[in-house]
């Protein structure tokens, strides 16, 4: 099960690399977006659960839309998941982030890394918890920041690593006793 909010490029990579180890069973978005179209084009059920004024109700609706998924992947899903959602999918919801957490959490990890002047950044796959990019780290892959990198070029290089890393994690994942086990 994959949550999306935008273009769905990470989703497309996840779909394109499905094998016997994992399958995308549904895609849910918070708004109509190209990610929903990508799912539909691949024959995967897709649903939009729009965020309304009542955030608690939205989280309940999101739990219902996700259903009985073993693993939930937040792939560019730009909303913070609430307590009810996290309780329902505790230890089974993962996210990718374009930085080496715990450094540079939040929506501007690439920009923040460049502004700080670090020489190495990368991609992190982590469990989702109640914080912003604070969940337990599952896997990371580093890349060197090149002198000519700007935010756009660096983000593209990180996305390339992110696509490989999420597939590696999904292929190594299985659920046992309602807990996600990843053996990388």
How would you describe this protein?
- Pathway: Purine metabolism; IMP biosynthesis via de novo pathway; N(2)-formyl-N(1)-(5-phospho-D-ribosyl)glycinamide from N(1)-(5-phospho-D-ribosyl)glycinamide (10-formyl THF route): step 1/1.
- InterPro entries: Formyl_transf_N, Formyl_transf_N_sf, GART, GART_AS.
- It is globular and about 45 Å long.
- The mean pLDDT is 95.
- α4 links the parallel β4 and β5.
- With 184 residues, it is α/β, with parallel strands linked by helices.
- The strands form two sheets. A seven-stranded mixed β-sheet has the order 3-2-1-4-5-6-7, with helices on both faces. It has a two-stranded antiparallel sheet with strand order 8-9.
- The protein contains six helices and nine strands.
- The longest helix is centred in the C-terminal third of the chain and has 21 residues.
């Amino acid at each position: 099960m994959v949550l999306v909010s935008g273009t769905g490029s990470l989703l497309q990579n996840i779909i394109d690399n499905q094998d016997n180890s994992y399958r995308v069973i549904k895609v849910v978005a918070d708004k109509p977006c190209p990610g929903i179209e990508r799912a539909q084009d691949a024959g995967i059920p897709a649903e939009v659960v729009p965020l309304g004024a009542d955030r608690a109700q939205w989280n309940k609706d999101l739990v219902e839309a996700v259903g009985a998924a073993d693993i939930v992947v937040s792939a560019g899903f730009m909303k913070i998941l609430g307590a009810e959602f996290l309780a329902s999918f505790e230890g089974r919801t993962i996210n990718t982030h374009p930085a080496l957490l715990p450094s540079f959490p939040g929506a501007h990890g690439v920009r923040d890394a460049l502004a700080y002047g670090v020489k190495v950044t990368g991609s992190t796959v982590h469990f989702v918890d109640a914080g912003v990019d604070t969940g337990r780290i599952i896997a990371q892959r580093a890349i060197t920041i090149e002198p000519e990198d700007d935010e756009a070029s660096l983000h593209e290089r990180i996305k390339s690593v992110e696509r490989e890393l999420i597939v590696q994690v999904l292929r190594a994942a299985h659920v046992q006793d309602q807990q996600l086990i990843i053996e990388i």
